[in-house]
From TrEMBL, chain A:
Species classification: Bacteria, Pseudomonadati, Pseudomonadota, Alphaproteobacteria, Rhodospirillales
Gene name for this UniProt entry: hisF
This protein's record includes keyword Hydrolase: no
UniProt pathway: Amino-acid biosynthesis; L-histidine biosynthesis; L-histidine from 5-phospho-alpha-D-ribose 1-diphosphate: step 5/9
Subunit annotation: Heterodimer of HisH and HisF.
Family: Belongs to the HisA/HisF family.
UniProt xrefs under PANTHER family: IMIDAZOLE GLYCEROL PHOSPHATE SYNTHASE HISHF, IMIDAZOLE GLYCEROL PHOSPHATE SYNTHASE SUBUNIT HISF/H IGP SYNTHASE SUBUNIT HISF/H
Domain of life of the native organism: Bacteria
Protein name: Imidazole glycerol phosphate synthase subunit HisF
Function: IGPS catalyzes the conversion of PRFAR and glutamine to IGP, AICAR and glutamate. The HisF subunit catalyzes the cyclization activity that produces IGP and AICAR from PRFAR using the ammonia provided by the HisH subunit.
From TrEMBL, chain B:
Recorded name of the encoding gene: hisH
Protein name per Swiss-Prot or TrEMBL: Imidazole glycerol phosphate synthase subunit HisH
HAMAP family in the record: HisH
Subunit structure as annotated in this protein's UniProt entry: Heterodimer of HisH and HisF.
EC id: 4.3.2.10, 3.5.1.2
Length: 251, 205
């Protein structure tokens, strides 16, 4: 049986890992290299590494950094941040990424997701979708929460799926870092709109929040950062808790 | 003991770092092959994953790799391992990206996974491999161990080539073997300990 994944997210900004609240007030939480080796040792299901300053700074992905991290990863690694063209994706795969997350360019670079999924296969193209309800209705926001797209999440994910994205990484900016739970309604609406796997992100503060995102929201996987940075919780205990609640996870 | 060597084909659409590193961790002498002429001198050959079938096959053909791989497998009869897309390339045909001809090293065809209720495609994540026959590749690996998968297509072939199956979308073939040629649908290089064991077993072939 397919196991539900618990995926730590590592956010990289300038020189190290950070974690914020609502995509703001970033706190430093240590070195990327250290985090990757610890998670590798702890046998996590998968890792997501996002360089959140790349797109706002107009920078390309830091390929050397990814290469160093990937060397420590005996589990799948999704890399995002600053992915703007096919050659970025090719290079990230070359240096050891298994999947590439595309966010800002998915909305502003016409045809990128389509071309990338044709070349490298849908299975390695993750569409990263950040959603804010700041303006009242849920809206997709690009460029690390700074650029409103005017797109409704449901319309955006349908379009991304049709373009060949293989997974949706769905982050609620409103819930990010608050540890009060995922945005279940948002997850539900996106899960119902597409038939590709949806990774829920933004808001996990307890293992029960993860159960809710999976059982009520219908997410195929849960991503989390704060809960692993700021509490004693571990991905392995999360998997145990999920399993006790009837959700298949890796032992 | 002499260090055993393995060549990994780099046709430009793949992530070869992970798998190269995993083989190095197994103690293998790893070379990355970019030229068709270097394929035949290898002791063991790996066709890695990631990439779309039709885009990859076109590159294999244009770069002269196809004939070299066939010579390696059929005439030299040396050990060949296909990983993920690499396993699918062993088939006769695939419907991914329009009907395409494969390497024809393990009789079979590649078709899209067909989701049952509640299932999503691609099949992404950790899932069990149920062993169907004795194989060197899975030697000392417990039945129903978890491996990491990420794919939208499956290999369809006769039972006698099947060494492992996995329960998703009505069940699919997750490992095949025919003589010196074998393939796994999952990513051993991303499957922690048991994945490493599969690569180790391949090095002993």
């Amino acid at each position: 049986m397919l196991k539900t994944r618990v995926i730590p997210t590592l956010l990289f900004k300038d020189f190290g890992l950070v974690k914020g609240k609502k995509f703001d007030s970033w706190r430093r939480v240590g070195s990327a290299m250290q985090a990757v080796s610890v998670y590798n040792m702890r046998d996590v299901d998968e890792l997501i590494f996002l360089d959140i300053s790349a797109s706002p700074n107009g920078a390309e992905p830091d390929f050397e950094q990814v290469e160093e991290l990937a060397r420590e990863c005996n589990m799948p690694l999704t890399v995002g941040g600053g992915v703007n063209k096919v050659s970025d994706i090719r290079k990230l795969l070359e240096v050891g990424a298994d999947k590439v997350a595309i966010n800002t360019a998915a909305y502003y670079k016409q045809g990128l997701v389509e071309e990338a999924s044709k070349l490298f296969g849908s299975q390695c193209i993750v569409a990263s979708v950040d959603v804010s309800t700041g303006s009242g209705e849920p809206e997709v926001v690009a460029c690390c929460g700074t650029k409103q797209t005017g797109l409704r999440p449901v319309d955006a994910v349908k379009r991304l799926e049709a373009s060949g994205a293989g997974e949706i990484l769905l982050t609620s900016i409103d819930n990010d870092g608050l540890m009060n739970g995922y945005d279940i309604d948002l997850i539900k609406s996106v899960v119902e709109a597409v038939s590709i796997p949806v990774i829920a992100s933004g808001g996990a503060g307890t293992y029960q929040h993860m159960v809710d995102a999976i059982v009520v929201g219908g997410a195929s996987a849960v991503a989390a950062a704060s809960i692993f940075h700021f509490t004693e919780c571990t991905p392995s205990q999360a998997r145990d808790y999920l399993r006790l609640n009837g959700i298949p996870t890796r032992k | 003991m002499t260090v055993k060597s393995v060549a990994i084909l780099d046709h430009g659409l793949c992530n070869i770092h992970s798998i190269a590193r995993s083989f190095e961790q197994c103690g293998a002498n790893v070379s990355v092959v970019t030229q068709a002429k270097d394929i035949c001198s290898a002791d063991r050959l790996v066709l890695p994953g990631v990439g779309a079938f039709s885009a990859t096959v076109k590159i294999l053909r244009a770069g002269g790799y196809e004939d070299a791989i066939k010579e390696f497998a059929k005439i030299k009869e040396r050990p060949l391992l296909g990983v993920c897309l690499g396993m699918q390339l062993l088939a006769d045909t695939s419907e991914e990206g329009g009907m395409e001809t494969g390497l024809g090293l393990v009789p079979g065809r590649v078709v899209r996974l067909n989701a049952s209720k509640g299932e999503r495609i691609p099949h992404v994540g950790w899932n069990e491999v149920m062993l169907r026959s004795q194989s060197r590749l899975f030697s000392d690996i417990p039945n129903c161990s978890d491996f990491y998968f990420v794919h939208s297509y499956k290999f369809v072939c006769e039972d006698n080539y099947v060494i492992g199956v996995t329960d998703y979308c009505g069940g699919f073939v997750s490992a095949v073997s025919l003589g010196n040629v074998s393939g796994v649908q999952f990513h051993p290089e991303k499957s922690q300990g048991f994945g490493r064991k599969v690569l180790n077993n391949f090095m002993l072939a």
